[in-house]
Design brief:
The complex is a heterodimer of chains A (225) and B (292).
Chain A: E1 9-20, E2 23-34, E3 38-42, H1 49-56, E4 64-69, E5 72-73, H2 82-88, E6 89-92, H3 104-114, H4 119-132, H5 148-160, E7 166-170, H6 178-193, E8 197-201, H7 205-211, E9 214-219, E10 222-223
Parallel strand pairs in A: 3-8, 3-9, 6-7, 7-8
Antiparallel strand pairs in A: 1-2, 1-4, 4-5, 9-10
Helix pairs in contact in A: 3-4, 3-5, 4-5, 5-6
Chain B: H1 2-14, H2 16-52, E1 55-60, H3 66-77, E2 82-88, H4 90-101, H5 106-109, E3 119-124, H6 131-142, E4 147-151, H7 154-196, H8 198-206, H9 211-251, H10 264-291
Antiparallel strand pairs in B: 1-3, 1-4, 2-3
Classes of the chains: A alpha/beta (225), B alpha+beta (292).
The complex binds adenosine-5'-triphosphate (ATP) and magnesium ion.
Chain lengths: 225, 292
């Protein structure tokens, strides 16, 4: 059915359905995302954008169909290898998902600690990534003491610090003013030019028009164009 | 590894109350179990020294030829469980009796003839004592034609040994109950800690942390709890032991000096066991958490 050796696509979704109980959140999604593509997923609120990304990082299991990421079949991946999949992905969550009891530094460092990197390396790398998102001065702050936009920038820093092959961003500029939004976007674009594949969910049509990138449109769980 | 320890200590700090309660309960368990252990160790010492003192006295029939005595002695000596058989002539026995009676010994002067029989005093090997075996041995000796009668602390040996065994059984039962209670309590603490941090754990998983990365600090935390519980419990017991042995010794005449504390090796083993309890509790808690 699916050609697992087709390396030109890093993400393949094949007749994917997702139901939450009786609620159909995604209906028959077919999608090929090739390496180094920059793709938007858009649509109104409740269309299923976040759900689609969730399926990709196994935040939820698919109800039907198959998903391949970088050669891994998500419906056949063992529990033990899920961390390996997630390390290939840099995820920016719509609700940030920062750990409230840890400092900004620890939140960002976590990714590298989980990879087993050396302390000195982590120290340097976290500092440089925080500088990229303009948060280097707040490294010792707790997430709750930050504004929504600042938390979002930390979320971006955490997503990119592990040099992921694929970046999944869910409304990455949702709570940022135009200026910091474009700063974050420039950062994402930079990772794109470095070779990462980008999948960005947003309802911001303006942003898509400005960047002139490809977009798929979801409505009530269906792919419309 | 340093990182894991750092996280474990962070955790202990944020869940101070929960950790304190767990450590206190673990120390209490250790205190109770090691008190029992101390008690058994010392009663065992007493039992042993008392067992060494157990003797069987075999009285000879009158008119046994002196030349036979060596034969009888050899016959007794080869029996299983006999450490030494000492001949005690009736004159010797009389001498002892006089010594024991001291002032009243003049009463004995009126005897025309020594009424005491010749006897063998039989000491048993150390590991031997056991009421049934002593009885068997006594019966065997009694069956020798030259032996008239055999005497030993028939009834109370049996009773004492049985009582001691009962104590020991109760001790085992209580120790295992406290062991299970401690495991259960640690498991519950860790479960509560996991529950209070479920959001954090979920996030860690989402950014690619392995189960092992998430679980290790919990194990470290539990083992630290176990170690602290063990050390505190033993320290409390030691303090109580010092207090009792310095204060009571003067009041009572019999020698409490002979009461010894748990050896260093045994104390170490207790602490290791306590750490194992922590580990096991954590294992149980995490196994459930993995199933989610
Ligand atoms: N865990 C869940 N349980 C039940 N229903 C859910 C769950 N998550 C999402 N849904 C439903 O699935 C549909 C798609 O939700 P999703 O979050 O993917 O929308 P979205 O496109 O990301 O919307 P938004 O732009 O508001 O973020 C919605 O109708 C939502 O109510
Ligand atoms: Mg969403």
């Amino acid at each position: 059915m699916i050609d697992e050796n087709d390396k030109s696509a890093t993400i393949r979704m094949f007749h994917v359905h997702k139901n939450y109980g009786s609620k159909q959140a995604l209906i028959n999604i077919n999608l090929d995302v090739s390496k180094n593509e920059f793709l938007f997923i858009t649509g109104p609120s409740g269309a299923g954008k976040s759900t689609l990304l969730k399926l990709l990082y196994l935040g939820e299991p698919v109800s039907e169909g198959q998903i391949l990421i970088d050669g891994m079949n998500l419906s056949r991946i063992s529990r033990k290898r899920i961390p390996l999949l997630r390390r290939k992905l840099g995820i920016i969550f719509q609700d940030y998902k920062l750990i409230p009891t840890r400092t900004v530094f620890d939140n960002v460092a976590l990714v590298l600690e989980a990879m087993g990197k050396k302390r000195q390396f982590i120290q340097k790398k976290v500092n440089s990534v925080l500088r990229m998102v303009g948060m280097e001065k707040r490294f010792n702050a707790m997430p709750q003491s930050l504004s929504g936009g600042e938390q979002q920038r930390i979320a971006v820093a955490r997503a990119v610090i592990g040099m992921p092959k694929i970046i999944l961003a869910d409304e990455p500029t949702g709570s940022l003013d135009t200026e910091s939004a474009s700063a974050v976007f420039d950062l994402l674009k930079e990772f794109h030019t470095r070779g990462a594949t980008l999948l960005v969910a947003t309802h911001d049509q303006e942003l898509i028009r400005k960047t002139g990138r490809k977009a798929i449109y979801l409505k009530e769980g269906r792919q419309t164009k | 590894m340093i990182l894991y320890f750092k996280r474990a200590f962070q955790d202990i700090r944020t869940n101070r109350f929960l950790n304190a309660v767990t450590i206190i309960i673990m120390s209490l368990s250790v205190l109770i179990v090691s008190t029992l252990l101390l008690f058994f160790l010392n009663t065992n010492d007493y039992m042993n020294s008392w067992k060494k003192g157990i003797k069987i006295i075999a009285y000879l029939k009158p008119d046994i030829e002196e030349t036979n005595i060596v034969d009888i002695k050899n016959k007794i000596h080869v029996l299983y469980g006999v450490a030494e058989a000492k001949f005690m002539s009736k004159e010797e026995a009389m001498g002892r009796l006089r010594e024991q009676m001291k002032r009243q010994s003049s009463l004995l002067d009126g005897l025309k003839e020594n009424p005491l029989p010749d006897a063998f005093e039989i000491r048993l090997t150390e590991q031997f004592p056991n009421s049934e075996r002593i009885e068997n041995l006594a019966v065997q000796i009694e069956s020798f034609p030259e032996i008239d009668d055999v005497e030993y602390g028939r009834k109370w040996i049996g009773r004492f040994v049985k009582l001691f065994d009962l104590f020991r059984l109760t001790g085992y039962a209580m120790s295992s109950i406290f062991f299970m209670a401690a495991v259960f309590i640690v498991a519950n603490t860790i479960r509560l800690v996991i529950y209070s941090r479920r959001e954090e754990i979920e996030i860690m998983r989402l950014v690619g942390a392995t189960d092992q990365f998430i679980k290790t600090p919990f194990y470290i935390e539990a083992v630290i709890q176990g170690a602290l519980g063990g050390i505190i419990g033993l320290a409390a017991l030691f303090a109580a032991y010092m207090y009792i042995s310095t204060n009571v010794e003067y009041g009572l005449s019999f020698d409490l000096l002979n009461v010894r504390f748990l050896s260093l090796r045994l104390s170490g083993t207790i602490i290791l066991c306590s750490m194992f309890v922590g580990w096991l509790g954590c294992f149980i808690a995490l196994r459930q958490f993995l199933k989610e």
